[in-house]
Amino acid sequence: MKIGIIGSGVVAQTLGTKLVELGHDVVLGTRDPKKLDEKKNMAGSLNEWLASVNPSTGSGRGQAKVASFKEAAIHGEILINATHGQAAVEALHLAGAGEAGSKVLIDTSNELDFGKGFPMALASEGRSVAGNIQAAFPKLKVVKCFNTLAAPLMVNPKMLHGGDHTIFLSGNDAAAKAQVTELLKSFGWTDILDLGDISAARGQEMYMGMWVRLYGSLKNGMINIKVQR
Amino acid sequence: MKIGIIGSGVVAQTLGTKLVELGHDVVLGTRDPKKLDEKKNMAGSLNEWLASVNPSTGSGRGQAKVASFKEAAIHGEILINATHGQAAVEALHLAGAGEAGSKVLIDTSNELDFGKGFPMALASEGRSVAGNIQAAFPKLKVVKCFNTLAAPLMVNPKMLHGGDHTIFLSGNDAAAKAQVTELLKSFGWTDILDLGDISAARGQEMYMGMWVRLYGSLKNGMINIKVQR
Hints:
2 copies of one chain form a homodimer. Chain A is α/β, with parallel strands linked by helices. Chain A folds into 2 domains: about 1-115, Rossmann fold (3-Layer(aba) Sandwich), CATH 3.40.50.720; about 140-220, NAD(P)-binding Rossmann-like Domain (Rossmann fold), CATH 3.40.50.720. The first copy, chain A, is about 35% helix and about 20% strand. A 5-stranded parallel beta sheet of chain A has the order 3-2-1-4-5, sandwiched between helices. Chain A has a 3-stranded mixed beta sheet with strand order 8-9-10, with helices on both faces. In chain A, strands 6-7 form a two-stranded antiparallel sheet. In chain A, helix 1 (about 10-20) links the parallel strand 1 (about 1-5) and strand 2. The two termini of chain A are about 35 Å apart. Strand 11 (about 225-229) of chain A pairs antiparallel with strand 11 (about 225-229) of chain B.
């Protein structure tokens, strides 16, 4: 299949390599196709990528080419957006996506803001209920917990998949988290994951954006996630 | 242990019941302790809750009482916030949490907006990169996928836990999603979860708020979640 990838970073390169291995004909579109020796964020240069992909052309493998956003968009029967979330609409305008007809576009992007270091914020990130509470009541030892699943599961994890799933906590005080951990164990939890200080509560809260969609799709609220690591 | 629960809905009642079963002494604090017969959202009235909990006092079980926010906060050696995220800081002010000293407060809340029906929005929810792209290019068949994990895993799920973890997709066009599903299978994915139309992309994108915290805590980006259901 002919696949056009908009973007040239680690996601674009990784997907591109695998697609070529599987026999697809890939054009990877980049903003400036003359800059093939420029090192990419979290990935090698596009010349390095081409060298790693193209020697293997032949034995049932596909082809790889680097071109402009627009050429990639024209080439692909399927398009993949592998740009940053903040840049995605502009990059797709540059690619002429408005004239691409009704092609499939796989959007892999996140609106992660790498400009302020770790933890990368979403553009919409910034605050959490738990963080607000901790700020309003500085003496309290706030521990975020229990917000990621339905109430019956909070206290009876064994009712789902033998209890093989994960509960999260975060907070600034280690002793407070140890106390909550003991409480969780007394409820039957075995996979208890400490996410860090109270700022991590934003992650737990944002997860709910996913949870409500899982609930909607599965028509079942007695679900949870197991973090495989 | 003496536990004070701020809030009286399904989370408060469920945690309260389990804590009493485990021998703890629970005061459940409600905004108006005179309204014991009022049916709670997604739960029974507080009189029903008391009736279900108290008859069993004796045999190694704890005690249960319903009182004001303030009395619950005074009672508890550990406090649990089980109010809605939007109301949490105000409820805790009513509870006198500022004078509660350095007690542990477990915050279970989410800022879910139930006012607009399903899917419940987070207060900060409203838009997604994928939705913006779909709106800007109405002819394209946008499928959100791949944004929830590190690039090497996208194409090689078997490298983690034998491939026993979940990848998500969403989009408005069933045929486009079927095509992406075939692509995912060719990469080795076996647990492919369709979250619905493109509005569900917001869930996939918000999950990244969790992912960056998992990455920070585990110091390992080669992780993913398995949805147990």
